[in-house]
Design a protein that fits this description.
- This protein is mainly alpha-helical.
- Helices cover 60% and strands 1% of the residues.
- It has 16 helices and 2 strands.
- A two-stranded antiparallel sheet has the order 1-2.
- Helix 3 packs antiparallel against helix 7.
Length: 380
């Protein structure tokens, strides 16, 4: 177990700054185009996965009583990411609209690379920031989400996903046998309305109308409008198109991660709209070192759902008898999810083994597979 003194050391924190390695790649891609456009996805997916296989798992259990002041270097990378991401997104747009050496396919590939940065890293950092009580960190999270036009994620994640994960109320709990592409379309369709419903119910409980100024959707709309205005100022209508393209790629990568995190895992329905509490075995766990450096321990997802207010450097890992284990880190699993037959071959046996281990009393999984168990009490 890492002690607070060990956690405080820069050598312990600096691996989590691996995300900075992506920045030179986007500059190289924008300048040279051509074959260099594979560099960002190659690094984020395959190089990191290769390092995972070399370095292996990190099963260290940091001391959860470590004070916040010992976590400064960990928090700092998430707090400085907003200006970095702004420079990457708008700097790339500025370059593209003023250059003529990239064809349409190369421009799309370049914006895909930008989406790797704003999605694989930016949204993950926003997720960490939104879970904090500090107002500055929460605002930074909101601003990061505005740069990918996905501000409702804050509401959906905090008021829906964490409360109702593993139930039919949570759209981003991927169902057993549901392919990613079908899942992605379903999430894009359901999540904005789901987030609006969650805020409406919260406002109703406070005796306020849905159009009250405390409804965060007004802030979401204003921040996203400012992000689009900035894109227009930098690159005109082409700038808005390029901005929207990187936002789509970023959201696509977020939802790939969501798909992997809970695929096929459901909470036991106990009747009358009641479900069992969230436990570590309701999330897929992965403690591969390098991918957790890049994704700031997001893959220790079992502990994140068990203790959502725990900062990322202190997240715990679990063995197979406590939580289901992914065979690889998220980058490799996300690539696998893009090929549904391959995904099902690898993951469906794991889901069936999970069911037999934790819920041997359930004989008919059909309602769970179809998302047809009753909605949780008080969720709609």
């Amino acid at each position: 177990m890492s002690t607070p003194e060990e956690i405080r050391r820069p050598s312990h924190a600096l691996p989590f700054w691996l995300s900075l390695a992506t920045i030179p790649f986007v500059a190289i891609e924008a300048w040279f185009g051509g074959w260099t456009l594979i560099l960002l996805p190659l690094f984020a997916w395959w190089v990191v996965t290769g390092i995972d296989q070399i370095v292996g798992r990190n099963t260290d259990q940091p001391d959860v009583e470590t004070p916040d002041e010992a976590l400064f270097l960990y928090r700092l990378i998430t707090m400085i990411w907003l200006p970095i991401q702004i420079v990457v997104i708008y700097g790339t747009i500025w370059w593209v609209v003023r250059s003529d050496h990239l064809n349409a396919l190369e421009i799309a590939a370049l914006m895909f690379g930008v989406g790797v940065i704003s999605g694989t890293i930016g949204i993950v950092y926003a997720h960490e920031l939104l879970h904090q009580k500090n107002r500055l960190e929460r605002w930074l999270g909101d601003l990061l989400l505005a740069t990918v036009l996905y501000s409702h994620f804050r509401t959906e994640h905090l008021l829906v996903h964490h409360l109702w994960v593993g139930t039919p109320r949570d759209a981003v709990t991927a169902r057993y046998n549901e392919g990613f592409h079908r899942f992605f379309l379903r999430v894009l369709r359901e999540c904005p309305a789901s987030a609006w419903t969650a805020e409406r119910l919260m406002l109703k409980r406070a005796g306020r109308p849905v159009w009250h100024r405390s409804n965060p959707f007004w802030r979401y709309a204003a921040l996203q409008a400012l992000a689009l205005l900035a894109a227009w100022l930098v690159g005109g209508w082409a700038g808005i198109g390029l901005f929207a393209l990187q936002a789509f790629f970023a959201v696509w990568q977020l939802e790939l991660t969501n798909y992997v995190e809970h695929y096929g895992l459901t909470r036991l329905y106990k009747g009358e709209g009641r479900y069992e509490p969230v436990r570590p075995h309701h999330s897929w766990n992965a403690d591969f070192a390098a991918s957790n450096w890049l994704l700031i321990n997001l893959q220790r997802h079992s502990d994140h759902h068990y203790k959502p207010d725990r900062r990322f450097p202190l997240l715990q890992t679990y063995e197979a008898d406590e939580a289901p284990q992914l065979p690889f880190g998220y980058p490799a699993m996300a690539a696998m999810a893009m090929v549904p037959p391959l995904w099902r071959r690898r993951m469906n046996p794991r889901v069936r083994a999970w069911r037999a281990k934790f819920y041997p009393q359930v004989t008919d999984w059909t309602p769970y597979n179809n998302g047809k168990t009753e909605m949780p009490r008080g969720s709609v």
